[in-house]
Fold each of these.
Amino acid sequence: MPKKNKPESDNSFWDWLFYAFIVIALSFGVWKLIDIRDTISGFFGDVSNWTWDNFGWGILITLLVIFTVIFLIWRKHFTIIFRYWYRTLGIIAALLAVWGILAFNEIGGAIGEGIIVEHNFWGGLKIALLLILSFALIFPRAVVWLLRKLKQSVNAYRTRQKEKAAKKPVIFEKVVTPKEPEQMPVMEMVDETPPANKKEKAPKEATA
């Protein structure tokens, strides 16, 4: 009789256990961060102040990254970070954008302030660019599809404009050249004295 294949071990229980541990750890960190500056003194107080001043609420992002790397190492999928390097960079850009948003509310620490630099339009523009970059790296196929659709729309618009220009009747305008002003005739003085009077005048002038 053929041997029955043994069912593979189901690790879903351990996965859920690990995710539950992450959620509990993050919840505990949030609960502690609310009162940590007032309840802890001495050395731990200095560490908490340094952590808050530099990370702010971004410490949760740091913990999330650390737990994710540990999980990938545990499940032997650490190489996926390098295999899909563009998505890794996209996730990093998205986390930096979230950290910058926290800095706008003055809870992102010195690292968040370094991301946005200034609390004005240019800081918001940096966050927007990080979000666009993260979307393009995480979903490259969607970006390529959008660019193709945009190119098709532009080409269709240009084609419609050319067809409208071809159907439009051409109107020829008659160019009228200005005429040169006509010159007035020059009037000449003509001596209309009869010849007989001329002869009579001549001797009188001689006798005189």
Amino acid sequence: PTPTPPKSSKKPSWKHPTDADGVQKWQWFIEVEPSPELVKYLRDDNTFSLIPSASPKPLDNAPSWFFIANNTTTLQSPQGSLRLIFNDKTHMLYATDSGSGFRPGAPEPLKAAPAQTPLKRLPK
């Protein structure tokens, strides 16, 4: 069966940075009502190998709706930037991550040379 897509209660905003913007830092926040399958995948299966955190570091620049109450289970990356926060009372999932700038992507693989057609002899 197809899982029910999660409901998002906030409208995301996105700015497409250009090279001229000189992005030095990026950060995102999301609040979602996850399906049981998503909770199992992220929390129970711990897909991203995150570490439970009893006292996560305070969040910089979090929007006002990104409220972390008591009764939560927090998983975070060893560096502490990726965090998944499960509110056990409201059953909402809060997630955030941040990083420094953008890195160039991997180069595209070289294209294979076209096959050469075999040479034919001219008739005598």
Amino acid sequence: PCHGEDRQFKSGRARLPGRVLLSTVLVVAAANAVPRPANAPPRPWYELEHRVRELTRDIILNDSRAVFRAFATTFKQETDFARFDSALQAWHAGRRVAIGRGQVIDTRGVSGRASSWVVFAGGADHDYIYQSWVYAADTWRLAWLSNILDRSFDYGNHDLADVRAMRAATLDWLITGGGLAQVPPGHARPDTVLVIDPAGTADWLPDYPTAVRTPEQFQARAGLPATPLAFRFVLTRSFGPIGVSAVDIQPLAQRRGRMARHRSIQVFLARTEAGWRYLTTGSVW
């Protein structure tokens, strides 16, 4: 269930009763009466709901510029606006939106998930747009729009030195910062860290015993070191002031002749003058 009021948007104009309008003005005035410190933590539902409502409105109005501005810094730096506008226009396909609604699904630390649905004029089916958000630079920033973007809109991972630094900080927190204890059923620090990497090299690894294998070498299970866990980075992305890594953690012990179930963890990092450091844990699945 969504916490807080869920707003509907229509293409036509709506008239608000006087009491509702006055209440809205008073609420907005109260919210803005006391400025919040720049480093204040996010108010997950209140602030993200507001951003989701704005985004849903802008999608309904087909306002490409406004939708584009909602994205994280690195997306806007690395994505040509004309290309993004083409993707949004292709999704609209010349249709007018009759009604739409957006709501927050959940928040966890500096990450949030939301969804919006619209019904196009003359249609009856709902078209859904799922969103990922991150709290960066003192506000919620859009990280992804499903059904509008495809995988060709990859971003935030083209600076290889930055990617290596984020991976090193993530692995260091998992191994030495207690991160493995947050991954069910809880794991002790391995003597040797086994990393699965497509290139078969990982010169970014922290300074402790490590081994690297390609996915094919790992699948063949030949010559693997005596270690209980293997680590595979499935996503590393910078949003500007913060970054994220998603890591698969695969136990090597076999159960009934098959490998035990792997777990995944989402780790958010903060960019500092000294480099990337652990910020918070996102989803664990």
